[in-house]
Design brief:
Layout (H helix, E strand, L loop, with lengths): L6 H17 L1 E2 L6 H4 L6 H18 L17 H11 L2 E2 L6 H14 L2 H12 L5 E4 L15 E5 L2 E9 L9 E7 L10 E7 L5 E5 L10 E11 L3 E2 L5 H17 L7 H11 L11 H29 L7 H24 L15 H12 L6 H11 L27
Parallel strand pairs: 3-6
Antiparallel strand pairs: 1-2, 4-5, 5-9, 6-7, 7-10, 8-9
Helix pairs in contact: 1-4, 5-6, 5-7, 8-9, 8-10, 9-10, 10-11, 10-12
Length: 417
């Protein structure tokens, strides 16, 4: 394991930091970027700020650096993308609203799209003029991405789509959506899917935000009622949607897994322990509190060094292994334990939220955020299956529905069209 940048990586890191220092404000060391994903905020103002930042990056050649130069990127290496994510995480830079489109949708269009589709979608996406969402999960097909029942029927040069998607981040402000549908119910579930790019302003689409207990509403359920999508919007071939979807999902791992994450959580928690007397004694002098703090510091170190393993693989041109699944599990465990301890140390003030609450309510925000993180980016149960099968070599779960026509699978009832 190599803990140091190569000379080339160090030079690129310095170049990133120089441009960011000249164009963005440093982020507070106490910030917690994970909890920010679930906060309530002035969404319209945030999106305008994000689009202005994206246009500035595009003008300077720092937008979508992994994309090929012919599409406006830098043809950057995977480790250069990781370095950029690490450096940009040190600054106030509203990047997240474009993660799905630029990190997942753009690469899918680049890989499988026609020249005309690339011409239509890539440039506005690069500049932040249009925001994308991902329409894969359904009420009965979350972790099983191939178990979808949303149906698309061919009608001349169009497809008529009926069905429902759920947990769609940003659907209420997105212009385009990556949509998986069932087009051949007589084929096994992985072989009868088709992948579309759908205009979210199409007639027949209803977006309903799902209110979160944090106060925010970033997730949505999306209904399709006789929505007409031009056949031109199919990515790849009809009934080859699973292969296209896998490209999107593989890029999702890179887009989510290469971020920098919050760096100030442990420092803030230690400061809280030093100043708190809610447990009857100063937190930093309470043996139980000190034990909990050391457990959390241990988890933080595990995450740190596990991420180093991933970075080393990427730097050497290798495909990272299951480290991402391990890191995600530890992250959620750490968030839960941190929130629990912080609430104990905060006393009655730990129930308060808002700008006038102690520490602006950051700890209650973390407490209410972490259950959502157990679902986002892969549930704990699915990640444990991945670790069990691919790391520990345990027997794979039975797949009795793999080669069965979808319409014969119990629960495989299609949406009417």
């Amino acid at each position: 394991m190599d803990f140091e940048d190569t000379p080339e990586e160090a030079a690129f890191r310095a170049e990133c930091n120089k441009w960011l220092s000249d164009n963005a404000e440093p982020r507070s060391e106490e910030g917690d970027q994970t909890a920010e994903l679930f906060e309530e905020r002035d969404e319209e103002a945030f999106i305008k700020e994000a689009q202005a930042w994206q246009a500035k990056k595009a003008d300077a050649g720092w937008a979508c650096i992994r994309w090929p130069e012919e599409y406006g990127g830098r043809s950057a290496t995977p480790i250069q993308q990781v370095i950029w994510n690490q450096e940009v995480g040190k600054f106030h830079a509203p990047e997240g609203v474009f993660t799905i489109g630029q990190g997942m949708g753009g690469p899918t269009v680049i890989t499988h799209g026609t020249p005309e589709q690339k011409e239509k979608w890539l440039r506005p996406l690069l500049r932040g003029e249009e925001i994308w969402c991902q329409l894969f999960s359904e009420p009965a097909a979350g972790s099983d991405a191939a178990g979808i029942t949303t149906r698309a029927l061919r009608d001349g040069d169009e497809f008529i789509v009926n069905g429902q998607k759920v947990w769609t981040s940003g659907a209420h402000y997105s212009k385009w959506g990556m949509l998986t549908t069932r087009t051949d119910p007589d084929a096994p579930k992985h072989k009868g899917m088709t992948y579309f790019i759908v205009d979210m302003e199409s007639e027949g689409i209803t977006v309903r935000p799902l209110k979160q207990m944090t106060g925010g509403a970033n997730f949505n359920e999306v209904f399709f009622e006789d929505v007409r999508i031009p056949a031109w919007n199919v990515i790849g071939d009809i009934n080859d949607g699973w292969r296209i979807a896998m490209t999107t999902l593989m890029n999702e791992r890179v887009a989510i897994g290469s971020g920098s994450g919050g760096s100030g959580g442990m420092r803030a928690l230690f400061d809280l322990a030093r100043n708190s007397t809610a447990t009857g004694t100063r937190g930093s002098e309470d043996p139980e509190v000190r034990q909990e703090l050391m457990k959390l510091q241990t988890l933080a170190n595990i995450m740190k060094y596990t991420s180093f393993r991933t970075l080393t693989s990427i730097s050497q041109g290798k495909v990272p292994g299951p480290e991402g699944s391990i890191g995600k599990l530890i992250l959620v465990k750490s968030m839960a334990a941190s929130a629990d301890l912080a609430e104990r140390l905060s006393g009655a003030g730990g129930m308060c939220a808002g700008s006038d609450a102690p520490e602006h309510g950051r700890w209650v925000q973390l407490l209410l955020s972490y259950p959502g993180m157990k679902i986002a980016g892969g549930t704990d149960e699915i990640l444990k299956n991945i670790i069990g099968e691919r790391v520990l070599g345990l027997p794979r779960e039975p797949r009795v529905d793999k080669d069965v026509p979808f319409k014969e699978i119990p629960g495989g009832t299609l949406a009417s069209a």
